């Protein structure tokens, strides 16, 4: 476990295609481009159990820190909403790295980001793998489904979205910030009970000791309440024609109870949904082998095609 929890386990690169320094891991260069997009409160570290196995399977794995997270800079324009993240990733992967198409994987905030990316830049996202994330709402298609997350698990949402400055001021020290973030991995029951050992929680929360970045990370929540926090309208829509593999960690107490069925309604070209036993919100860490093997199998034709080239 010691090696797994090293921040320098993978070599990082940096680029500034959108006017700020964005840091990312890239392994398996020359393979099928695979973009791993973290959520909140996460950084690229949440993918530490996925990068090496997926690179070994034949993918060129690209795992960035979104603007305002981890080792990346805060957005210079002050926006940290879904469209900003989507445009950043397109500039990084298409503009800087030169990939015309990509398979995108995301959960939590990363889910809306890759959905936006797939519709904002048609044809760029060849396939998606989606788990435990927000979805566009369709009243007719989702009639009768449990579409509201448990209220007791959602109390964080309003202060982060409507009074972010006050909340950031309350979290006045690195230790206070990390303790706040730690609750999302433990007592708030996003993850399956016991999924994160104390040293793993420490590893995931360390980047959130930075006050400016924690404040910036609230931007996605602010954008759901305030038009002033939106750089532009999101491109998320239902239905989304992108072929999508849907996974679901049902121990999650913050996402929609019927996420899997809702996602099936949103993505007509879906595979699954597949429910993952004893897994909650952080699928890429809690069910790493299941995610890695599912992505590899689902993209087997792409991997075989790349090997023949």
Short description:
The protein has 309 residues and is of the alpha/beta class. The chain is built from 13 helices and eight strands.
Secondary-structure map with pairings?
Layout: E1 12-15, E2 22-27, E3 32-37, H1 51-57, E4 59-64, H2 82-96, E5 102-107, H3 110-120, E6 125-131, H4 157-162, H5 164-170, H6 174-185, H7 198-205, H8 211-217, H9 219-225, E7 244-248, H10 259-266, E8 270-275, H11 283-286, H12 288-298, H13 300-308
Parallel strand pairs: 3-4, 3-5, 5-6, 6-7, 7-8
Antiparallel strand pairs: 1-2, 2-4
Explain what you see.
It comes from Tepidiforma flava. It holds the Pfam family Abhydrolase_1. Residues 33-287 form the AB hydrolase-1 domain. The protein is an alpha/beta fold and 309 residues long. The chain has a domain at 12-150 and 232-308: Alpha/Beta hydrolase fold, catalytic domain (Rossmann fold, 3-Layer(aba) Sandwich), CATH 3.40.50. The protein is built from 13 helices and eight strands. Helix 1 (51-57) links the parallel strand 3 and strand 4. Helix 2 packs across helix 3. It is globular. The termini are far apart.
């Amino acid at each position: 476990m010691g090696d797994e929890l090293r921040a320098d386990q993978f070599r990082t690169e940096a680029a500034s295609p959108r006017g700020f320094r964005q840091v990312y891991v890239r392994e398996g260069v020359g393979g099928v481009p695979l973009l791993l997009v973290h959520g909140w409160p996460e950084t690229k570290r949440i993918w530490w159990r996925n990068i090496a196995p997926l690179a070994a399977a034949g993918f060129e794995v690209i795992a960035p820190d979104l603007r305002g997270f981890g080792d990346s800079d805060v957005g210079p324009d002050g926006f940290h909403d879904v469209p900003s993240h989507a445009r950043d990733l397109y500039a990084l992967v298409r503009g800087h790295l030169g990939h015309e198409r990509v398979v995108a994987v995301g959960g939590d905030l990363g889910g809306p980001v890759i959905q936006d990316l797939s519709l904002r830049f048609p044809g760029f996202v060849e396939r998606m793998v989606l788990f435990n994330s927000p979805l566009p709402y369709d009243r007719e298609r989702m009639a009768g489904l449990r579409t509201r997350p448990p209220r007791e698990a959602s109390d964080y949402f309003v202060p982060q979205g409507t009074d972010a400055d006050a909340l950031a001021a309350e979290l006045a020290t690195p230790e206070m910030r990390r303790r706040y973030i730690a609750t999302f991995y433990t007592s708030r029951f996003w993850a399956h009970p016991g999924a994160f050992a104390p040293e793993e929680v420490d590893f995931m929360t360390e980047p959130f000791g930075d006050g400016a970045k924690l404040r910036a990370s609230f931007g996605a929540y602010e954008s759901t309440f305030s038009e002033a926090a939106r750089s532009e309208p999101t491109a998320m829509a239902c239905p989304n024609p992108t072929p999508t593999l849907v996974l679901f960690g049902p121990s999650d107490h913050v996402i929609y109870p019927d996420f899997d069925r809702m996602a099936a309604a949103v993505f007509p070209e879906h595979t699954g949904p597949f429910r993952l036993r004893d897994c909650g919100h952080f699928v890429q860490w809690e069910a790493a082998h299941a995610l890695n093997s599912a992505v590899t199998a689902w993209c087997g034709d792409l991997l075989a095609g790349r090997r023949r080239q």
